[in-house]
Amino acid sequence: MTASIRPEPRAGVMSIAPYVPGKSKATGGGKLYKLSSNETPLGASPRAIAAYKACADHLELYPDGTSTALREAIAGQFGLSPDRIVCGAGSDEILNLLTHAYVGPGDEGIFTAHGFLVYKIAITAAGGTPVVVPETNLTTDVDAILAAVTPRTRIVFVANPNNPTGTYIPFDEVRRLHAGLPANVLLVLDAAYAEYVRRNDYESGIELVATSQNVVMTRTFSKIYGLANLRIGWCYAPDHVCDALNRIRGPFNLGGPSIAAGVAAIQDREFTESAVAHNEAWLPRVTAALAALGLVVTPSVGNFILIHFPDVDGKRAPDADAFLSANGVVLRRMDAYGLPGALRMTIGSAEANEATIAALAAFLKV
Ligand code: PMP
């Protein structure tokens, strides 16, 4: 036996920089304000929590492998056909399944410069080539995407709104993108933050999915519904795409407690509305307060904001991160997104938001 011979992952796998989640700990003692992972400060709907607990007596049983109750509940809320919904263990799983179904060695997948990190990981893991296109003012640039399309392009990911920039493109731009793509390219509209958007010219993509053969919309229960810990995502897709995903997904990819909690969460509209109202109140307030401190903030339509720090000794983003952490406030470093001068702050509870504003005021004065 030769010690140097061992199984090696497929080409590309070891070139992937592992996804690093937002930090959960501060360096300082005292109260922790974790605003690093775009989690809701409001928890989950009490009805979702009760539905989850009610599953505790039957953990020995396999769940329904087709997540029927959840697909029907989602379909009911959005007026969709349950047959055109596929559920996944977070929308991360859906993004990975889509990539593995449509991208292989020699194929290209396009996403934008500051797009969600999972796109690159998924494309590379599938053996494909990630193609990164520039953004304009930290916003998806449709012309840049269209210019990058080649005969090898198989998939295009657009997070709308995008994480971590918080920017979005209006729906006529999404339509223009779709119109310019070859019919064999899959356009994935990642609408993880759709519920938070309050803009007349925004649509999550439902209509475009319904009227085309090459568009998929992905959604998540991790954000507004407060169920990140249960890993629930879904997509609305053409029949033939659902068929492909259902062939390659794990046969029981969602646990029963996730299915049950998801059903209860999506039906608790009052809870969702209160979460939207919280964000609507705090997003402009935090944005204005940070601007008043002299910080540049990218205008956001999501539940988070991108804060840009001055390129001045002692005042850069890593300095701010260290200062905030020592004061119990954890934001997200943006180096992995190619934005080393910025930190991303999730809109938190009133207390967490005030604490962050106060800590940043103190940081800028020191
Ligand atoms: N898409 C975007 C744009 C996101 O920000 C996230 C969460 N960070 C996801 C997808 C994945 O969310 P989940 O897997 O929890 O559904």
Can you characterise this structure?
- It is a single chain.
- This protein has 366 residues and is α/β, with parallel strands linked by helices.
- It folds into two domains: 21-43 and 270-364, Aspartate Aminotransferase, domain 1, CATH 3.90.1150.10; 46-267, Type I PLP-dependent aspartate aminotransferase-like (Major domain) (Aspartate Aminotransferase, domain 2), CATH 3.40.640.10.
- Helix content is 37%, strand content 15%.
- It has helices at 46-53, 68-78, 90-102, 117-125, 142-148, 171-180, 206-210, 239-248, 256-267, 269-292, 317-326, 350-365, and strands at residues 33-34, 85-88, 108-112, 129-133, 153-159, 186-190, 215-220, 233-236, 296-298, 304-308, 329-330, 332-333, 342-346.
- The protein has a seven-stranded mixed β-sheet with strand order 2-8-7-6-5-3-4, with helices on both faces. Strands 9-10-13-12 form a four-stranded antiparallel β-sheet, covered by helices on one side. It has a two-stranded parallel sheet with strand order 1-11.
- The longest helix has 24 residues, at 269-292.
- The N and C termini lie far apart (62 Å).
- The relative contact order is 0.17.
- The structure holds 4'-deoxy-4'-aminopyridoxal-5'-phosphate (PMP).
- Residues 38, 90-92, 116, 159, 163, 190, 192, 220, 222, 228, 233 line the site of 4'-deoxy-4'-aminopyridoxal-5'-phosphate (PMP).
